[in-house]
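Give me structure tokens for this 320-residue protein.
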Amino acid sequence: MSMARSAEKYKKRLMWSIAALALATIVFSGMVMAKGAGDSDSKPLLTIDREAVPEAEFQFFLQDERALTANNYYLKYGADGGVDFWDTAFDGKTPLESAREQALDKLLRAKMEALIAVENKVIEADISYESLMKNRQEKNEQRDEQMEQGETFYGLSFYDEYQFYNYERNEVWEKLLKWKVEQDKPDDKLLMELYKKEKEIFNMGHQLEYMVLRADGSTHLYDLSEDDISKGDTQTLYLWYELAKLEPHEQLTQVEYKGEMVDVLLLSKKSRGYRTFQEAKGVLLQLYGEEQLLKQVEERISQATIEINEETFSKLRFAQ
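Here you go.
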């Protein structure tokens, strides 16, 4: 497995993956647009060290929990997500209550990342929801002008509330990560300990030699590692992954490949070893920074003054 792909898997394991929650994104984008930015003059849903969080901001996180919670309750209790599903208690807690708790936990992490960034002058910005939505409007207007003038730019041509919120959060996280590594300056001894601990991440996988046997009697030899196959060639990747489960001289029978049914014989399976410490160093710095940042966020949350409007919070439901 390539180092880049391995690092990505590790990152997803460390931090909640915004991309991994994309099941709810398409549905929620429309919901948030209809709901709007919330009532800025009303009492905030909660405050974190006096930083106000309106209901509209919390809804981003609550809606992300919809599919996750439904799936968890189906796996654990066999709940089918019927009409009364969200208000039916399982072991003393309803799925809606569970979703609110999980959403609150993730929102606290997101806001604390931003607060840490401000406190340490990593960013100089108003991190309020109202300010973020104002920045979103300005970004969209800028995109309109760039498109009218035929300019090239990266990213979306239009951001809805949900997309822009996550875009900004990713930007803050990347800046925090760079700051943390520069601040701590981990030496090679510390990074070597991390390398040994997580060495399997740098496993380069196997080199597979195999033969494709076609119905007309013709054959074709392949000698490939996972890195040799483009991500767009999903059929070859699938075949390679299936072969990687076998031992030499075992074969796959009658699998579809390149528009025909073939047999595939695995001839050899050789380990490619591990990335060296020097090759892995860049990724190790990133992994170190992520681990330390997550610890700092957790510690900062434990010290924060958090005030919740319990009456409003206990009545919150998914945006309609």
